[in-house]
Amino acid sequence: MTDYDARCLIETAHALADAAREATLMYFRSAALGVENKAGQGFDPVTRADRACEAAMRAILAERRPDDGILGEELDNIPSRSGLTWVLDPIDGTRGFMCGTPTWGVLIALADATGPILGVIDQPYIGERFLGGFGRAEFTGPHGGRALATAAPRPLSEASVFSTFPEVGSPEEGRAFAALAGQARLVRYGMDCYAYALVAMGHVDLVVEAGLHPYDIQAPIAVVEASGGIVTDWQGGPAHGGGRVIAAANPRVHAEALAILSAAA
């Protein structure tokens, strides 16, 4: 990491997030979404806003960082010539976006061969941005900004747990999550990437999910870990490839969650 120009890379990440705000807010709560279903079975929506947002970010990277790779949700991957890859999810939480809820977000990560080294979670409508990496963990919003820090250790019986979908993946994964949720004080659903931002802010203890893609989790990994948290898969290994994920505020609550999920799944 010491070989990278951190200032330049952070400036680029902010430029991408600024462009994403403009592109997504053109469509949010409008009748011009143009929703399509990407799934052969079930419902996996994509909108004009998703594609416009990713295109806007890619245009900036083509100008500023032409040798970097791009892994995005909606458009073709571009291989890296620099050893760095930008991992983009233009709208994480498209279902929420469609419904007008302000809980979706734009995810921007920068990864090298080891995984994500910089991440941004941005919520354009409420104007909140969470950044982690290169020794920085910070929040900015309409009422000011501050450093990010995850919550202090407390037992699972006093913890709050979030997940996007009550089913949490397959029936087997759902049963494993239910075993964990049954021991927590509070369980909430449907926040998408904003739940990880709340872990980084110190308001939530755990986010547990399954069936994720790399672009769903790499930015949250960078933000949560820079803020003092820990993110792994359900066996305690690296999570930047997606799949089953535990994002925890601290090692204590992570260990409790891991013991339940690794045994039940």
From TrEMBL:
Molecular function per GO: histidinol-phosphatase activity
Domain of life per record: Bacteria
UniProt KW Thylakoid keyword: no
InterPro entries documented for this protein: His_9_proposed, Inositol_monoP_superfamily, Inositol_monophosphatase-like
EC nos: 3.1.3.15
Top-level class of the enzyme under EC nomenclature: hydrolase
CDD domains the record matches: Bacterial_IMPase_like_1
SUPFAM superfamilies: Carbohydrate phosphatase
Alphabetic keyword roster: Hydrolase, Magnesium, Metal-binding
Cofactors demanded by this protein: Mg(2+)
Family statement: Belongs to the inositol monophosphatase superfamily.
Protein name: Histidinol-phosphatase
